[in-house]
């Protein structure tokens, strides 16, 4: 059963068709990896799914609800959660406030502190003062507290130290084993392919590859071409 | 001289309160609201006209407050519906247009620029300080300004909704993405500012030449106060508003300067801008 | 004057003459008087339109400026000053200018909102002062004397029309100069405009001062029309109504100003005849302006769009990209080893708080080369362009352009020194025409053949085309054409192919590769599309975490394991 199904999606940005006729599926409890060079349209595709940017055509199905006509906050309530690129924490809010603001009624901020113990002592620190890694942890925690069904993650590893990236990747893999469905956009393909199941590669706004992560793992040359051209 | 300066206290309190409301609206929904005082004027005149129709004073006050709140919420709804993602400049232009419409309608309904009698909600003097009488109205407006400033600060820092509003003001798109009901909250911000402004105007109404236009133009000194607070700090805005009132009172007491007292807000605006922009180069937003 | 300008000028004059004749010879004096009022209002609206609709700033004290003009005329009249009304009106206009500058100076730098607040404050203060001072001769009913030639209402109407026509034509010509084009452009993007070598404060201040002058003229003409003046004609409320009408009608265009002037005068007249309260007109204006703001267009602009649609056919001009594959990029030959450095970056370091965005970056772009700068997201590429072109507040290190030190220079001065840039997202103001955009970008008016050759080569539509009619992809071509038109020493292209399809970016590549040979301009290009990089760059530098990690001939660098690692992650991880 697919948790998220996107069919023939078009998304424009500043009048330019950045995502052209993209279709993809995220199966329940799996990690789907979306790869592609910079500027291929990955972020725009995620934002189109989450509703931050309006789509200009196509269908987005979350479970059995069609969400493409809903506003972003309604989509969030329906179970979509986007972890934006560039550490979109609310910098003027403390760590605890950042968590509290998105918390689902049944969730507790303690859950996040259990996953990321290092955030405990930063609890009352303004999140603008956190390190990049801590901010990314905070964002992931914030998303989880909203109790999402599908997690959309945009460039989680951007500018982070490799050790932290590995730890976060492991966490994402663990979350998916617990039943969360994940659509992972990642520039560092090797890491994402190591944890993912299904893979898509975006080039110039359209899906240029649709297959398994294993296939790309086994054939590095193929991936190299998709990034650096022929 | 001292007497006339202190006479500016009541006005200062009102400037402060309206100024704090302007900062409140700007910080949370990023609209520089030119209709700030006109909203209060609407509620105040609703109160007066109901009173003239023979309704009881408490009822008239409540209905007037409700009227100011509803008008503010309506304006908020218009801004959210059509201008949510518009640049700050466009939003400000919209409020200017709406202000013109409100003044035209307001003057028409309230019978033009002829002043009309207003009930003194808080008559009499509170106490005498060094031979100078401090009116109750002055005391009440300044207390209100303080209460609103404290309440706004606490609300934003201590409640979940306040938290959501702060998140919304910082990153509107991110806020929507985590499920914050941006529209409802924004309209709530407008309504809150509306009720506070209405209350302030009701209290100082008897001391002004009360017609709809002069009331609406109280937004000018309120802007001066908000600029002193950098459109960011509630407390500086509060202090700025009160200081402005005192300064105006002082100018009114000096012979030869009295007729220029209304230029005080303009001079303050000019001075604050000169100071605050000495290093700026261009509009960072664009 | 170009033939198109000559034609539109003659048409404007002809229409004005015919309209004046019809009104003067068929209508009663009462109606002529009203029409005179409408034209005087239209002149004031031209001034508001210049600031509000053209430069996109909010000015709420235009009638205070008009009052200054009127006051000066009344004063000169009372003093029996030499010259006649015509001279006095001119002096009145000039008298308003220093006020405009004094008010504009502190407000024009930062947010546009400040101008709205400061002008509102000025108008409110001015109202009270005007009430207590009154106009010279007002209390004694001394009428402003008209010259004999213009003593009849009909002749005075003709005079006002003439002033309006002269102003409208002058503003139209001015709008085709770099200064005039910068007004429309800065409304859209201030940084984008500064990148063309425009000083933003100067541009804004000139618009504001000119609008004060025009407002002063209209006040003086009103003094001549009415003879005696009252403060009520110039209140803050009237200023706000003029702003609102401008916003609705689009008074930066002559027809918008005339239409607005007629609305201001005749709408209340119509209401009066219908026995309706006249001030309700303002409510309609307010609603109309709100509607115009929500649609993002004005009546005059919509009308021109409609006109274009009816007489010129389809709205969107075909794209500048062609189907044929004749355009093939040829990588320019490698530059000689001893070529001088056109751009020399030494030890560039940029910090945002505790984050180091660029860490001791040094490299050079040799004269006549196309150099690529690549790197994963967040590596600091755009920060580098911002720093080099003067769009960062501070940085450490040195930037040399052709041996000349640029550090400490503001962005527009660097642009004038010969370093131009494009932006990741196009910042061309949609209200401009292609030709006016080139004028702005080149800081001069190009000769017809020069601009046509450039546009043809780049695949852009002709200079008369409105930018709003061009599709987004072709605007990216125009971005590049614009920076080239300035004939700078070097251009910095920030992701010129972002959002283009593969085929489109291939065609763009072919043109970029020719830039050094054709225009003598060196190129530094930030790009993610590796095919494009491979097609046009002979040398590339790779930026990662704010540091240069590799450099050299393109293909060699792209095969470098360190570069692959920076992009894809550790290649070791791929096998496991």
Largest sheet of chain C: 6 strands, mixed
Strand arrangement across the biggest beta sheet of chain C: 6-7-8-3-9-10
Identify the biggest protein-protein contact and residues per side: B-C, 50 and 55 residues
Helices and strands of chain B, in N-to-C order?
HHHHHEEHHHHHHHH
Main sheet specs of chain B: 2 strands, antiparallel
Structural class of chain B: mainly alpha
The helix count of chain C comes to 23
> Could you name the ranges of chain C where pLDDT drops below 50 across 5 or more consecutive residues?
none
Instruction: Choose one word for the global shape of chain C.
Output: elongated
Rg calc of chain C? 28 Å
Task: Give the end-to-end Cα distance of chain C, rounded to a whole number of Å.
Answer: 72 Å
SS strand fraction of chain B: under 5%
Number of helices of chain B: 13
Low-confidence stretches of chain B: 282-286
Percent of residues in beta strands of chain C: 5-15%
Helix content bin of chain C? 55-70%
Q: What structural class do the secondary elements of chain C suggest?
A: alpha/beta
Quick summary:
With 230 residues, chain A is an alpha/beta fold. Chain A is built from 9 helices and 10 strands.
Which short descriptors sum up this protein?
heterotrimer, B: 286 residues, mainly alpha, 3% strand, C: 576 residues, alpha/beta, four-stranded antiparallel β-sheet, 23 helices, elongated
What does this structure look like?
The complex is a heterotrimer of chains A (230), B (286) and C (576). By secondary structure, chain A is an alpha/beta fold. Helix content of chain A is 36%, strand content 29%. Chain A contains nine helices and ten strands. In chain A, the strands form two sheets. Chain A has a six-stranded mixed sheet, with helices on both faces. The N and C termini of chain A lie far apart (36 Å). In chain A, 53% of the residues are buried. The model of chain A has no long low-confidence stretch (mean pLDDT 89). With 286 residues, chain B is mainly alpha-helical. Chain B is built from 13 helices and two strands; from the N terminus they run H-H-H-H-H-E-E-H-H-H-H-H-H-H-H. In chain B, helix 2 packs parallel to helix 6, helix 6 packs across helix 7 and helix 6 packs antiparallel against helix 12. Chain B starts with a helix and ends in a 10-residue tail after the last helix. Chain C is of the alpha/beta class and 576 residues long. Helices cover 58% and strands 11% of the residues of chain C. Chain C is built from 23 helices and ten strands. Chains in contact: A-B, A-C, B-C. The interface between B and C is large, with 50 and 55 residues.
């Amino acid at each position: 059963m697919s948790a998220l199904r996107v069919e023939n999606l078009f998304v424009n940005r500043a009048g330019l068709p950045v995502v052209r006729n993209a279709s993809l599926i995220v199966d329940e409890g799996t990690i789907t990896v979306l790869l592609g060079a910079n500027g291929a349209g990955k972020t725009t595709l995620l934002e189109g799914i989450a509703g931050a940017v309006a789509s200009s055509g196509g269908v987005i199905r979350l479970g059995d609800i069609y969400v493409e006509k809903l506003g972003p906050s309604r989509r969030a309530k329906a179970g979509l959660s986007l972890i934006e690129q560039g550490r979109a924490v609310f910098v003027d809010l403390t760590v605890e406030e950042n968590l509290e603001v998105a918390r689902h009624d049944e969730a507790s901020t303690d859950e996040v502190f259990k996953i990321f113990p290092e955030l405990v002592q930063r609890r009352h620190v303004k999140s603008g003062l956190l390190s990049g890694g801590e901010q990314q942890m905070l964002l992931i925690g914030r998303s989880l507290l909203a109790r999402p069904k599908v997690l959309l993650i945009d460039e989680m590893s951007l500018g982070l130290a490799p050790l932290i990236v590995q730890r976060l990747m492991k966490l994402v893999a663990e979350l998916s084993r617990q039943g969360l469905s994940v659509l992972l956009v990642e520039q560092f393909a090797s890491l994402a392919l190591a944890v993912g199941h299904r893979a898509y590669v975006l080039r110039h706004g359209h899906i240029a590859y649709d297959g398994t992560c294993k296939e790309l793992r086994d054939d590095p040359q193929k991936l190299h071409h998709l990034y650096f051209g022929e | 001289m001292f007497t006339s300066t202190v006479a500016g206290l009541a006005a200062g309190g009102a400037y402060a309160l309206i100024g704090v409301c302007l900062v409140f609206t700007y910080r949370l929904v990023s609209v520089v609201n030119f209709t700030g005082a006109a909203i209060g004027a609407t509620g105040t005149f609703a109160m007066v006209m109901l009173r003239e129709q023979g309704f009881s004073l408490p009822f008239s006050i409540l209905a007037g407050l409700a009227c100011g709140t509803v008008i503010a919420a309506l304006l908020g709804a218009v801004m959210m519906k059509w201008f949510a993602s518009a640049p700050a400049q466009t939003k400000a232009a919209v409020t200017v247009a709406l202000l013109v419409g409100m003044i035209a309608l307001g003057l028409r309904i309230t019978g033009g620029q002829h002043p009309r009698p207003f009930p003194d909600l808080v008559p009499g003097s509170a106490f005498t300080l060094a031979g100078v009488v401090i009116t109750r109205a002055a005391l009440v407006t300044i207390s209100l300004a303080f209460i609103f400033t404290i309440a706004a600060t606490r609300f934003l820092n201590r409640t979940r909704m306040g938290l959501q509003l702060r998140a919304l003001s910082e990153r509107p798109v991110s806020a929507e993405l985590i499920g914050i009901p941006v529209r409802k909250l924004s309209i709530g911000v407008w309504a809150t500012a509306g009720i506070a402004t209405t209350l302030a105007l009701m209290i100082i109404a008897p001391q002004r030449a009360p017609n709809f236009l002069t009331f609406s133009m109280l937004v000018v000194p309120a802007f001066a106060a908000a600029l002193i607070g950098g459109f960011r700090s509630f407390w500086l805005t509060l202090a700025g508003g009160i200081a402005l009132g005192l300064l105006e009172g002082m100018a009114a007491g000096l012979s030869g300067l009295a007729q220029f007292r209304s230029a005080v807000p303009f001079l303050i605006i000019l001075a604050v801008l000169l100071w605050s922009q000495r290093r700026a180069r261009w509009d960072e937003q664009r | 004057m170009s033939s198109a300008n000559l034609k539109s000028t003659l048409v404007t004059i002809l229409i004005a003459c015919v309209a004046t004749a019809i009104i003067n010879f068929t209508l009663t004096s009462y109606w002529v008087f009203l029409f005179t009022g409408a034209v005087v209002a239209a002149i004031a609206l031209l001034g508001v339109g210049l600031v509000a609709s053209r430069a996109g700033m909010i000015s709420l004290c235009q009638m205070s400026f008009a009052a200054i003009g009127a006051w000066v005329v009344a004063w000169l009249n009372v003093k029996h000053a030499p010259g006649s009304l015509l001279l006095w009106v001119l002096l009145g206009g000039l008298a308003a200018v220093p006020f405009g500058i004094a008010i504009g100076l502190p407000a024009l730098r930062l947010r546009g909102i400040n101008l709205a607040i400061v002008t509102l404050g000025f108008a409110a203060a001015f109202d009270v002062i005007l009430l207590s001072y009154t106009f010279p001769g007002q209390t004694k009913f001394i009428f402003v004397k008209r010259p004999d030639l213009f003593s009849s209402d009909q002749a005075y109407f003709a005079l006002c029309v003439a002033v309006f026509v002269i102003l409208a034509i002058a503003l139209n010509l001015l709008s085709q100069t770099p200064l005039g084009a910068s007004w429309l452009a800065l409304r859209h993007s201030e940084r984008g405009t500064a990148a063309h070598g425009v000083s933003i404060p100067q541009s804004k201040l000139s618009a504001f001062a000119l609008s004060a002058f025009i407002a002063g003229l209209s006040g003086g003409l009103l003094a001549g029309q009415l003879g005696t003046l009252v403060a009520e004609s110039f209140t803050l409320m009237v200023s706000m109504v003029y702003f609102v009408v401008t916003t609705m009608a689009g008074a930066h265009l002559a027809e918008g100003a005339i239409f607005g002037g007629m609305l201001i005068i005749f709408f209340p007249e119509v209401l009066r005849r219908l026995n309706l309260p006249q001030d309700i007109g303002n409510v309609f204006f307010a609603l109309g302006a709100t509607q115009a703001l929500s649609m993002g267009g004005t009546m005059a602009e919509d009308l021109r769009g409609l006109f274009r649609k009816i007489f010129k056919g389809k709205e969107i001009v075909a794209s500048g990209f062609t189907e044929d594959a004749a355009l093939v990029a040829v990588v320019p030959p490698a530059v000689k080893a001893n070529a001088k450095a056109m751009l020399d970056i030494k030890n560039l370091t940029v910090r945002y708080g505790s984050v180091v965005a660029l860490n001791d970056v040094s490299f050079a772009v040799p004269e006549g080369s196309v150099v690529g700068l690549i790197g994963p997201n967040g590596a600091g590429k755009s920060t580098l362009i911002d720093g080099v072109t003067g769009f960062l507040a501070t940085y450490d290190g040195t930037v040399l352009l052709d041996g000349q030190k640029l550090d400490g220079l503001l962005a527009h001065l660097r642009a004038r020194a010969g370093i131009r840039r494009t932006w990741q997202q196009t910042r061309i103001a949609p209200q401009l025409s292609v030709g006016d955009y080139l004028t702005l970008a080149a800081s001069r008016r190009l000769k017809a053949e020069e601009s046509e050759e450039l546009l043809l080569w780049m695949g852009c539509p002709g200079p008369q085309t409105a930018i709003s009619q061009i599709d987004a992809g072709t605007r990216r071509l125009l971005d590049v054409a614009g920076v080239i038109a300035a004939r700078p020493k070097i251009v910095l292209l920030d992701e010129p192919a972002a959002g283009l399809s593969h085929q489109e970016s291939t065609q763009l590549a072919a043109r970029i590769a020719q830039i050094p040979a054709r225009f003598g301009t060196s190129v530094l290009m930030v790009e993610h599309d590796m095919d494009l990089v491979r097609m046009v760059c002979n040398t590339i530098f790779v930026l990662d975490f704010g540091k240069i990690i590799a450099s050299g001939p393109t293909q060699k660098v792209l095969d470098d394991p360190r570069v692959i690692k920076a992009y894809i992650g550790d290649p070791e991880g791929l096998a496991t």
